[in-house]
């Protein structure tokens, strides 16, 4: 704005570009923007101005998005945290959910897979609060539960994301117990039309791949096992090992029994020396299956602009993500389009229309990532993955060979999904009643999911060893090794249609200079409809035609189902503040869900929030404190997501039946069977959440902080009473839900941000945030009579029940001096066996010595560290992210069934190196401490604490005078990275992993470069 002529002014576009015509070229311009300090800059006849604005953490006029509305930062009374979309754009992660990690205190992001198309993170707020579903409600542009969620949104379309962590979420009622994550997409702004093209090109590789034993190490272990699993007495193991290494067998003195080594000394030597890869391969199955890098790219074009009466934002984007397999059959492609318009019909009517389309094309191998990584973990290094001539080697088991299965040689699994979403709203103000507004909002979501699984037989090759040894000529024999010999086709289609109809009436007035009142009431009706259909055929004459009509009629199969779900909610908000000093807010919702029986279908969910801006008191005059607000909230919220056995349990108040097949009179007959015993009266899981927060800005606006304390008490949790119901009843798997479970969750959060710089244009800010949450199970239906130290009650959700390892019996002398009775565990102890602690002190090691730990799979402390710096045309952003307090049991399928971890080889009791800490290894878990109940022990638990360099971006904006001659207003180039470095207590798997045996697609490090052009 011209400081001498306030009528002359413009609004900059999304990237800060502007153009203004001045009457006087020697005037000054005033620049202002929410969240930044106003700046006056003299023009002095210049045609181009480069303006850097300083962030104003004390700007309390900034708008924060909350449920069904917005609030000024100064008057927010809830625990609400937010991140701007521009921050997320700095991350090369394909899924938006992965870009949130470490940025929002109290928001726990865990990425358990890096598989293209399946790499979204799980999101929960303030840790684990319930025994069932802990996922928050996702709201996009005012519509809850939109198909597709937040993970695959185009990050360039996101304006901001707000997270409601306390009673501020109560306005969402039955789905608010786990908090709410509110996404707002970009809208057009007044100004000239701008066009921005952005392109990213990245290379991805695993953050961590398990290091496995090599061929000679694996054979050494197998030869050791041939001694341990034989009749050779333990006091002869040393002599037996010497004979095994020298001559390949051992004759047990005093008997006729000769024990042969699993592999001869010549074979071990051949694999160790690697002189002949045909006979003695040394295979790294991961290296044979993986390529060095997988490519990914993103392209986006956005157009925005408009005048006072009509504004628009539109974008079109494309994402392509390859997998780390060689000749990969795994790929993810996404096409997205969005247009948001804002039209002022007249002084009293304003409309918004948003339309988005997203196509997600997922292509997978015919077997899932879990199966593929099971092959890789089990792959024996003394067997070839690929023969020296390039043909695939023999299978691991049942035709499974990852080098082949990860390609299109076995068929394909195509899973395209289309999302079509419409959001429309009308705001009508009343010319006669100031501050009164009616809003009509509707959302329509239509999605179609499809799958086409085409499976064809594949051929693997084996070496004629005798002929090769005799002639030196390698002859490979090919044979179909898949567990089927005919092609087969499975097709699936699911169509969903969701409607949201919302009406809001709001009244916002300021009375005089002191009193501000805000009232809102609304009603929302939601319906969710869907149909599913699947078909299967096999016995194809040829794999050349992959259509249903070409399959045989024998064993063909069809299936189908549908659903119709509805929700109805009435809600409101009342806000009052006095001089922005004393703040009060009341939120409520009366919500109904189809999941519950008629008499228990509706529930009332209130929330009360208060705040005190202490710095607005006349008596408050503390030097160095610019802003200080104390706030508190208490609310009751619901959770209707009844999950048993990994599935949502609907209509559990009805007698429901499913189909089953049973032999009757020698024939297989289809019969009806009960799926659950009904409960005619059950209702909401209820969250009672208390929050106390303190916000402050000190040191002349340089340091801002937020401190939170919370206590969440969850009761009426829907559980099955499996503990008190004996298995002999025959109904334990049919038990209905009852409102009996109770969980407490207590913790704190903090956020600190320091802003600095100098007059030479160097600006920086450093932020630290963290959240600690410790949950406790207050009641769960447990087995009567179990010891207190084994109960889940009083411990965190999912806490481990284990035996406490107490070292290893190093030799026979230690076994002789042992006074504990291990007869319930093993008949005769041997060197290398694991010791357990006698927890109850009865002198016997048995199931009464299991203890419930305070550790679980989920971290109790999550944190992030951010650094942003800029100097002239350069800017740098850095994000560190970490977590502590979790542990993971690691146990692999090893022995004659598969390979061992290198860690296991290096850390084991052996005849040559007896250990008092690490036990003997096992085959197929055949020792008491490696399989079954006793395998759940503290030795197998590994710490998951880690710190990760999560995200880095270094960017350069070319000076405008350099690019204007090319018709550009801005040209930006950058390099960025994701998951670049990880420091972890265990480096066997990625520390975010939740899979104990390594059978998962690993998380990815991404090295990215890109640019953006603005016209």
Q: Tell me about the largest β-sheet.
A: 22 strands, antiparallel, barrel
What Rg do the Cα atoms give? 33 Å
Distance between the termini: 22 Å
* Average predicted confidence as pLDDT: 93
Helicity level: under 10%
Low-confidence stretches: none
Q: What structural class do you assign from the helix and strand content? A: mainly beta
Indicate the proportion of strand residues.
over 45%
The outline comes out as globular
Overall strand count: 47
Number of helices: 12
What would you note in describing this structure?
The protein has 1015 residues and is mainly β. The chain has a 22-stranded antiparallel barrel. Strands 5-10-11-8-9 form a five-stranded mixed β-sheet. The model has no long low-confidence stretch (mean pLDDT 93).
Give descriptors for this structure:
5-stranded mixed sheet, 1015 residues, single chain, 8% helix, 22-stranded antiparallel β-barrel, 47 strands, 12 helices, mainly beta
Could you give the topology of this structure?
Blueprint: E1 28-33, E2 36-42, E3 63-66, E4 69-72, E5 80-84, H1 85-88, H2 96-99, E6 107-110, E7 122-125, E8 137-140, E9 143-144, E10 158-164, E11 180-185, E12 191-206, H3 215-228, H4 237-247, E13 249-251, E14 258-260, H5 265-273, H6 285-289, E15 294-306, E16 310-322, E17 331-344, E18 349-364, H7 369-378, H8 402-405, E19 411-429, E20 436-455, E21 459-463, H9 465-471, E22 476-480, E23 488-511, E24 515-537, E25 557-578, E26 582-593, E27 602-613, E28 625-639, E29 643-644, E30 647-648, E31 656-664, E32 667-676, E33 685-698, E34 703-719, E35 738-757, E36 762-779, E37 801-803, E38 805-808, H10 812-816, E39 834-836, E40 850-852, E41 861-871, E42 874-884, E43 887-889, H11 902-906, E44 941-943, E45 946-957, H12 960-963, E46 970-984, E47 1004-1014
Parallel strand pairs: 8-11
Antiparallel strand pairs: 1-2, 3-4, 5-10, 6-7, 8-9, 10-11, 12-15, 12-47, 13-14, 15-16, 16-17, 17-18, 18-19, 19-20, 20-23, 21-22, 23-24, 24-25, 25-26, 26-27, 27-28, 28-33, 29-30, 31-32, 33-34, 34-35, 35-36, 36-41, 37-40, 38-39, 41-42, 42-45, 43-44, 45-46, 46-47
